[in-house]
Specification:
single chain, 268 residues, alpha/beta, Rossmann fold, 6-stranded mixed beta sheet
Length: 268
């Protein structure tokens, strides 16, 4: 469980967090979205203990695992040594540590890279290694800040699968991303941050309700009729009833998380 209440933090007189609140239950993946400067990374830094807030509280129930946005690995050591270090920090010892390293290496497609130095890994392999440091000890709370930025499809797929498995086993996950389709894949709830506060919170279905979709009808001469509407199915039926020309194509676009994101970006 993670409960964040009223976080306030400023840098050089500019507010990074201004009453930031967020609560995430065990087994829940909360997707944290917002433009650069919305306060996401500052929240992660406070929650992980790297910096202190001016006011507010963070309650974390259980062991914490974190993967920051920027790579934070030691280039001169091997992947195995890296995982041994982070697993040891979490209290794993001897055979339990070895089993954890072998398990996470297989899960994150790193088994063949365990004895290679971090510095010679590809960018995707380094991303998987960083994620593995957060996951190796099966923490109760996971904070993942843009974990797939610049990642290849193989890395993204491995990480999303690992995150889903942790949530299914009861972990609390906060997953910050600008790539909104990932949140759909993860069946995540959504928290939209702006100007240091969470301005919208709920499931995708709850937050998308009432947002407009779009209907496009392509006629026989390639003329296109496009209508923005809150009820695409009904609008399409009405359009078709009023047409006396052949139709070459129909496209119905339901509202998406991208639409939500754009809509809330204008909220004060």
């Amino acid at each position: 469980m993670l409960k964040v209440t009223g976080l306030v933090k400023s840098f050089n007189g500019v507010a990074a967090l201004d009453g930031f609140c967020l609560e995430v239950a065990p087994g829940e993946i909360a997707g944290l979205v917002g433009h650069n400067g919305a306060g996401k990374t500052t929240f992660f830094e406070i929650a992980s203990g790297l910096i202190a807030p001016e006011s507010g509280n963070v309650v974390i129930d259980g062991r914490l695992g974190i993967a920051p946005q920027q790579l934070a690995l030691y280039p001169s050591v091997t992947v195995r040594e890296t995982l041994r270090f982070f697993g040891g920090l979490a209290g794993l010892r001897r055979q339990a540590l070895k089993r954890a390293i072998d398990r996470i290496a297989e899960e994150m497609l790193l088994t063949n890279e365990l004895d290679r130095r971090v510095s010679v890994l590809s960018g995707g392999q380094q991303r998987r290694t960083q994620a593995a440091t957060a996951l190796v000890a099966d923490p109760a709370v996971l904070l993942l800040d843009e974990p797939t930025v610049g990642a290849d499809p193989e890395t993204r797929a491995a990480l999303l699968a690992a995150v889903r498995r942790r949530a299914e086993c009861g972990a609390t996950v906060v997953y910050a991303t600008h790539y909104l389709p990932e949140l759909t894949e993860l069946a995540a709830t959504i928290a939209v941050a702006k100007s240091g506060r969470v301005i919208a919170r709920g499931t995708g279905e709850e937050l998308l309700k009432g947002l407009p979709g779009e209907v496009r009808v392509i006629l026989d001469n390639d003329e296109e009729l496009a209508v923005t509407t809150a009820d695409p199915t009904a609008t399409l039926a009405e359009l078709l009833r009023g047409l006396d020309r052949p139709v070459r194509g129909i496209d119905i676009r339901q509202p998406s998380l991208d639409d939500l994101y754009k809509e809330l970006a204008h909220v004060a």
